[in-house]
Amino acid sequence: LVVVPVLLVISGVLYVLNISDIRTTVLGLALGVFFLYLIRFLAIQRSRKHWYKVAILMSMIVMASGVAYSSSRDALPMTLMSSVRVLEQPIESYRPRLNMLVNSWDMLVDNPFGVGANNFEYHHPEYAKPGTPLGSEFVNERQILKTPHNFLAKVFTELGWPGGLAFLLIYCWLFIHAILFVRRQPEHWWVFVSFIALMLHSLMSQVFI
Question: Which ranges in the chain belong to alpha helices (H)?
């Protein structure tokens, strides 16, 4: 009985994401489901009980998505289609945000102890390379970039190596406990998928900041 309302909530969330055109969250949810099936697959394979059923199910999902995408550009919702296109050319699709990360790395190299909390936007223009192929997005005479669209990158540039490594350890701790949680309580799979989507989204967009 719990599965039906959970599926309804997920459908509602996907609908809102579609009309909002937030593709990073869609990718986060997709990766969350992928990691869930991967954990289930490994657990079932170790116990040698019906592991092939999981493999068949995952293959069917991939094939169905591929057929829907190749048969018609309008077969999938708008945001889901844009998310699939990202998978076709991930580097080029995220080139602007990759530039932000590369330029943020230059900031960290010059400021190993950070530039201070909430000071990213004041220092990043010095490293943004505006007007060049390696330029950070949203940095020009009319705009200012407040975050590199990656929570850890923002923490590293503002708090330096000490603060950045501390938050990186927190991320690793949370991921490990999320895996242990879903292995102990597989009936709460939706909590795991939502958590993974949130954490991955924070590495691709403005989350927590």
Answer: 3-20, 23-47, 51-71, 78-88, 90-93, 95-110, 120-123, 151-184, 189-201
